[in-house]
Amino acid sequence: MRPRFFGDSYDVVKQSLLRWLSPLGTWFVHPMFTKPWDRADEFARFLDVRIVAEDVLHAETDRTAYFAKACSLPEHLFLDPNTGLRSKTFRGAKSPNYLFEDDLVSIADARPKWLTLVFDQSVARGKEKQQLCQKLSCLQSHGLSAVAYISHACFILVGRDAELVDRALATLRRGSRLPAERFVG
Fold this sequence. Notes:
Layout: H1 9-21, E1 27-30, H2 40-47, E2 50-51, H3 63-66, H4 68-71, E3 76-79, E4 84-86, E5 98-100, H5 101-110, E6 116-120, H6 128-141, E7 145-149, E8 154-159, H7 162-176, E9 183-184
Parallel strand pairs: 1-2, 1-3, 3-6, 4-5
Antiparallel strand pairs: 6-8, 7-8, 7-9
């Protein structure tokens, strides 16, 4: 979550998706801050969810420890990296901007009865569907059920329980009334 963009159209889409998914249970957000921010509670109120952690993610952060609270959460989880989901792990100054596939798989493995929603802006314009399908395929190779929402603000929804992911997709379609082609998976 990039604090300087708080309240932009991406945040409105985040809020809408979480509202449409709320019939499935309680949602929490892990904003994946890359800088300290004193308005985190305001962000959580805007999304109508609670915050898992406000810890700042740095390039040298132990990611396993960083996501420990998320892994132990017995509720649905929204992860909000600055940029999105990357299949390949890398180190360096830009790494905190991403959730890595390994991070997501570990979080989903630790919470097999719960959903995880990920903001994913790391797809090229015009290639959103193709690149999201590649990511879904990688996640499915780890035994996760996964679907994606294709828009200017893309999202990936995963879980170990295929029936729950299917129910979530049906809930999204029903609540949002979005065209079916906006979803892949």
